[in-house]
Fold:
Amino acid sequence: MNDLMLQQIERIPIYQHNKEIFRLLCGLDLEICRPDGSPLYTATSRKDKINTNGLIQCPLKKNCKQKTLENSHCTIINPQTLTLICHNQRPEIYTCPDGFKMIIIPIVFKEEVVGLVFTKEKEPFRFHGEQCRTTTDLLYKFINDTVKNEFMQFGLTLYQGNSVTRQKELLNRAVDYIKRNYQSNDLTLQEVAQNNGISYHYLSRLFKKELDTTFAQFRNKVRMEAAKKLLKKQRLSVSQISFACGFDDPGYFCKVFKSSFGASPVNFRTKKQSKSRLDSK
Structure:
């Protein structure tokens, strides 16, 4: 991930100066996070911040009155919100049950969301009318102008050195998610992208660029490798294996399997069993 880049942004003098101005004038504390919503200075990945409902804990939860409310908007963030921000590359505002505004600002560099800035209004500073939208627009401009004007000068080499690392990190997380969830027959590119906090268009390009394959082809490859292992278990029928590997149509499963290995599941199992008997003699 681009942790080094985000740390570099946080150290830029003009960012530190304006961050203090927003705190004094508007009561806003700015916290830079990774694109998946996890706090920058923690080793914990986003999957460890997801509750039982699949919602992400807000980085500002420690400052919230609603700590005990499981479904409070100020303590959790729907992953769809982060996906929307990363796709549109525009800020989002929503209100918690106490009526406080939460603002999430994307940090955009070279047409890619490389991080997020979280902030939230608090007493005695409250927005009225269009003040929240105006402040949000100012924050967005300040943050991204800082990145463009300052980071391009001081941090371009750093970013270029970590760009490939970030892409591989995102791809590795997507691959890991597929391997852990291939049994689901509705596992889609959109779901995996949402889990990573990026657009599905970008993830699709990553699969093609880094693995020279499509998402669907890779997903089927994972499922077929799992099917091969399950076929060694005689107590499971082909239909049961089909369902266990994420296919709701055994006929289509057999078609994909034969296309992958040159034999139907039944013939594949028969050959393996014959080979095992010969090897045991």
User: Anything to note?
Assistant: The chain has two domains: 1-154, 166-279. The longest strand covers residues 101-109.
